Each structure stands twice: as C-alpha cells, then as structure tokens.
Automatic annotation (TrEMBL):
Its EC number is 3.1.26.12. It is an enzyme of class 3 (hydrolase). Keywords: Hydrolase. It comes from the Bacteria. The lineage of its organism: Bacteria, Pseudomonadati, Pseudomonadota, Gammaproteobacteria, Enterobacterales. GO terms for molecular function: ribonuclease E activity. This is Ribonuclease, Rne/Rng family. The gene is rne_2.
Length: 130
C-alpha cells in the first residue's frame, strides 16, 4: 500500500474489509476531497453499495450496429453496358498515331541537359589535345 501511496503522490489508500470479500476480487471506489463521510469504516461497503453496482469499464458495453459504408446508396447495375459501335473506336486510334509520331522528335529535359554537359566536356578535351 505504501508503494501505491508514494507512486500516486499525496494519496491515502485504505483497505476496508468486507465479509463477502474474496481475494483477488475487489472493487475500487474513488472518494474525492469533500465527498468524504464520517461513517465508520465497516459501514462503508453498505454506504457505497449502489455506486459499486453501477457498470464499470470492465463490463462490456452495449454493442453498436456496424457502420454502414457512405456510398451504400450507389448501386452498380447488374447488366453490362450496351456495346458501342465500332466506328467511333477506330477514330481515337487514328488520332493517337500523329501524337505518337511527334513525341520522339524532342528529347526529354534530362537527356538534353546531359547531352549539353557531354558536349561541354568533349569540347574541352578537344581544345586541350589540339
């Protein structure tokens, strides 16, 4: 008890024996300053019997319903979408071909940077040897 009192600071711990007490079954009741009573210690269990009967943290709480997803109102259709005509599908392929041909014309930023560095150092080598 003294270890508990010293760990918690300015706290007094009192163990009140009860005729129904079984070791290791016990209940802890907090009595704050101003809530103390001048009752005899052997009458304390009867005084606090109602407070001890209240459900505590160790008892399971009432189960809540599982959460419903936020997008439960949106339902996917069971039938697949109607097939589209084949002619519009051919047009995007033809439009993508000119874009693909134009892309290799310009090198990327990094490749241009490294090629410029390469040219600078190769120019210095040529200038040193000649």
């Amino acid at each position: 008890m003294s270890a508990i009192e010293s760990r918690q600071g300015d706290v007094r711990v009192i163990i009140v024996p009860n005729d129904e007490m079984q070791t290791p079954h016990y209940s802890v009741l907090r009595v704050r300053k101003g809530e103390e009573t001048s009752t005899l210690s052997y009458l304390l269990p009867k005084l606090h019997e109602e407070e001890m009967a209240l459900p505590g943290d160790d008892e399971p709480a009432e189960r809540k319903r599982p959460e419903q997803p936020a997008l439960a109102a949106f339902v996917m259709p069971d039938a697949p979408p109607a097939p589209m005509l084949e002619e519009p599908a051919a047009a995007p392929v033809a439009a993508a071909a000119p874009v693909a041909a134009a892309a290799p014309a310009q090198p990327g930023l990094l490749s241009r940077f490294f090629s410029a560095l390469k040219n600078i150092f190769s120019w210095r080598r040529r200038g040193q040897t000649g």
